[in-house]
Write a structure and sequence with these properties.
about 350 residues, about 30% helix, globular, 4-stranded mixed β-sheet, 4 domains, ligase, about 30% strand, cytoplasm, ATP binding
């Protein structure tokens, strides 16, 4: 086995997840140091620890340093194998962030997963974004999977659940061109709450709709309310759909003392920013696409609403594992254009 790739994990958990994903798929070992050292609670937290254990089981990896709050980890993958797992992250750890790490290696073999944790929590893509924005974007590469939201889970209790099943892809992946936004056809709004009055979800949706009335397109609204649940919270997800298949997503979450109207307006403002950028890739999708662009055969492009630190970190890690060519035009916090010459991984 080759020497482990040295990875600097100071930037955050995304560096760890991307490293795990590409290591498990390519078979390249890595050692990550200074794990999340720039975060208030550095080291491996339950969510990251669960990702390490899940990926290790999927590819029969040897791991060193996988203990709570560890700041260094060595991961030596074996061969990806068919898996059927049940994973409980605990509390409100994000289920979608775990699935992000699982997606690349699941291109090799069928992986079935039921994950319990947080589905709609701060600093993570909500479940509706995973299925409404990421899933159709990855389909363009030739990545297919089944995903279903079984029960919502909010911070801090969590208790949500999703199901995932991969469909092993034909490698190498196809190159993509996400540079045109297309014509806006509809805006889908899903407003949801649990252990709260239904009016909370209704008022969130009403506020978002009012903020977005300037757009002459179909408004598709869905209200979800679970009056009695073992989790408590609310949120609103927006999905803008375009005639060329592009999707832009935005969301906002409720919190104690935060009016429902504020939640709806906040989500609408986020979507407005993406819509007015006239770019088909929003700030949250950009970094998630990079590993798949690196794996693809040919040159892929996208234009994004904003260059984020997550995007720059994803580029750095992907280049380490795949040795692909990646160029970016645009400064941090500004719109950008990314070009990736993939390695045609098969």
């Amino acid at each position: 086995m080759p020497e482990p790739i040295p990875v600097d994990g100071a930037a955050g958990g995304q560096v760890l997840r991307t490293s795990l994903a590409l290591s498990a798929l390519t078979g390249k070992p890595f050692t990550i140091s200074s794990i999340r050292s720039n975060r208030p609670n550095p080291g491996l937290q339950p969510q990251h620890f669960t990702a390490v254990k899940t990926l290790a089981e999927t590819c029969h990896a040897e791991i060193e340093g996988a203990v709570k709050e560890s700041r260094q980890l060595t991961f030596k993958p074996g061969k990806v194998r068919p898996s059927s797992l049940q994973v409980n992250i605990g509390s409100a750890g994000s289920v979608t962030l775990l699935l992000q790490a699982l997606l690349p290696p699941s291109l090799r073999e069928e992986v079935r997963l039921r994950v319990m944790g947080g589905t709609d929590v701060p600093f993570a893509p909500p479940a509706n974004y995973f299925s409404g924005v990421l899933q159709p974007a990855l389909k363009a590469f030739g990545v297919h999977f089944e995903f279903s939201l079984n029960k919502r889970g909010y911070y801090p209790k969590g208790n949500g659940a999703v199901s995932f099943k991969s469909v092993p892809g034909r490698l190498p992946l196809k190159a993509v061109d996400f540079t045109e936004l297309g014509q806006l056809q509809s805006i889908q709004c899903v407003s949801h709450c649990a252990s709260l009055p239904r009016e909370v979800a209704v008022n969130q949706a009403r506020a978002a709709h009012k903020k977005l009335e300037e757009f002459d397109c179909e408004w598709i609204e869905s209200i979800e309310a679970a009056p009695h649940s073992d989790t408590i919270g609310s949120g609103l997800d927006l999905l803008a759909c375009f005639d060329n298949g592009a999707h832009l997503g935005a969301n906002a979450l409720g919190a104690k003392g935060k009016p429902a109207v504020t939640v709806g307006e906040e989500a609408a403002v986020h979507l407005l920013k993406s819509l007015r950028s006239l770019r088909p890739v929003d700030v949250h999708l950009a970094d998630q696409l990079i590993p798949f662009m690196g794996l693809a055969k040919g040159t892929s492009f996208f234009q994004c609403a904003e260059v984020s630190q997550h995007l720059l970190s994803s580029i750095a890690v992907t280049k380490q594992f795949l040795d692909c060519e990646i160029s970016i035009v645009g400064d941090l916090g500004q719109p950008g254009r990314v070009t990736v010459k993939g390695v045609g991984f098969a």
